[in-house]
Fold this sequence. Notes:
The chain contains two helices and five strands; from the N terminus they run E-H-E-E-H-E-E. With about 130 residues, it is of the alpha+beta class. Strands 2-3-1-4-5 form a five-stranded antiparallel beta sheet. The radius of gyration is 14 Å and the shape is globular.
Amino acid sequence: MGMYTEFKFDAKLKKDTPIGVIGILEYMMNWDRDITNILPAHEFFQCDRWSMLFRCNSAYFDTPEVPEIQEINGQYQLSVHSSLKNYGSEISNFLDWIDPYLDEPTGKVIGHHQYEEDEYLTWSIKK
């Protein structure tokens, strides 16, 4: 069965975010194309469940929202709420990978995650 971690994320991306990054994020929502040729050499993409980060859900956490990336006036907003088996540190590796592309001030809360057995949330902060 396994233990799950809830993941919630909401942040704006920089206007100059590379189209390849947007393509990877869209793939993570839809699994609708082959993107193996654009994956960067980052630890996140070595995780077993990297591609499932946005789309996993469990009965333990109520995660009804559908992940979305919206373009508003040339800037993307990424919103995710999922729960997954975070055994390969997918969440922290994702946050490390996406951080340089975020258009948020340093120190801003951009989400949280919580393991089933944890009493408190772990806040995700823009570096």
